[in-house]
Amino acid sequence: MSVINFIKRIYRLVKYIFWYIPYKRSISKFRVNTLDFDTTIKKIIDEDLSVTRFGDGEFRFLLSMDLGNTFEINSVRLSNQLNRVLEYNDKKLLICVPSVYLNLSNMKLSNKVFWEREVSIYLKKYYKYLNSNYLYGDAFFTRPYQGYLFSHREVERRFNCIKKMWENRDVIMVEGEFTRFGVGNNLFKYAKSVRRIIAPSTNAFEKIDDIYNVIKDEVLSNPHHRPLLLISLGPTATVLTPRISVELHVQAIDIGHLDIEYEWFLRRADSKIPIEGKYVNESTREKYIQGEINKEYLGEIDAVVK
Q: For a tag site, which of 17, 202, 212, 235 has the least CB within 10 Å?
């Protein structure tokens, strides 16, 4: 370990100790009930549930807080729509939040520090929007790799569990222009088919009604066909999935950063590196590196929302 890395680790340890007691006080005072990873996945598959997910970003948008330079415009409408999502009471919809309200034992030190601070400062601010009697799913089921201390075999097991969601299913992938979910890897190996609806890579919420109408036309074009919709569009996906589930009566899952997590896993990356040909908004370096466009991917595109 270099001197610089040693100093960074000591600094994180100090921050971990500093935030530990405020974190414990917060989760004791503001109780949030969440399922674990395996129970979340099993429930989604067994009950054909649609899924909407809240992470730290969605809660900040909900509170109309300034997130700085992000891929989505902060707006009153977005805040109101996110609030409405948390009020849904539909048996076919599972609302998911981060599973950080019981313990952080399996996380890397840097992630422990982040979530200790996040929970200590913000949980009391958004707790009033949560239902203390609701059993939330684990929003981190789409992030089984980076940030955790799991063995390679355990992470592989988790990805294999997730892939069962679309095994032998016709998938409609709704994604940003440069997301290219499942392209260049085997995430969709056991899907029956994959079609794609391409949305803007940034500020997709500004086009949410257009995106919804394209999805509606796609679903209603064959009323006897019930595909699985996977949506990777940040907070736009959080808002879209319950609307699609309730109004169109099809299963829709906010699948988040799963594809990028899988790419990092395949590379055994220990940091959030860029992936050639895919937009990585959390990359510590370039967000997007141009890559060769896959012809099979181009053939899967049914519609583009500009």
A: 17
Distance CA 158, CA 138 (A): 13
pLDDT band at 286 (very low <50, low <70, confident <90, very high): confident
Q: Answer whether 134's CB lies under 8 Å from 127's CB.
A: no
Residue closest to 143 by CA, chosen among 265, 273, 283? 265
CB 244 within 8 A of CB 213: no
d(CA 44, CA 92): 9
- Give the C-alpha separation, 1 to 239, whole Å: 44
Q: Which residues contact 22 (CB under 8 A, 6 or more apart)?
A: 116, 120
Give the integer Cα–Cα distance in Å for 225 and 228. 10
What integer is the mean pLDDT of 143-152?
A: 96
| Cβ proximity of 238 and 82 under 8 Å | yes
Alpha helices, DSSP H, located in the chain: 3-29, 37-47, 56-62, 76-86, 109-126, 152-163, 208-220, 235-248, 258-267, 295-300
At position 200, the amino acid (one-letter code) is: P
Give the start-to-end residue ranges of the domains of the chain: 3-304
pLDDT score of 1 = 65
Position 231: which residue type? I
Answer whether 223's CB lies under 8 Å from 249's CB: no
User: What tokens does 287 get?
Assistant: 């967000």
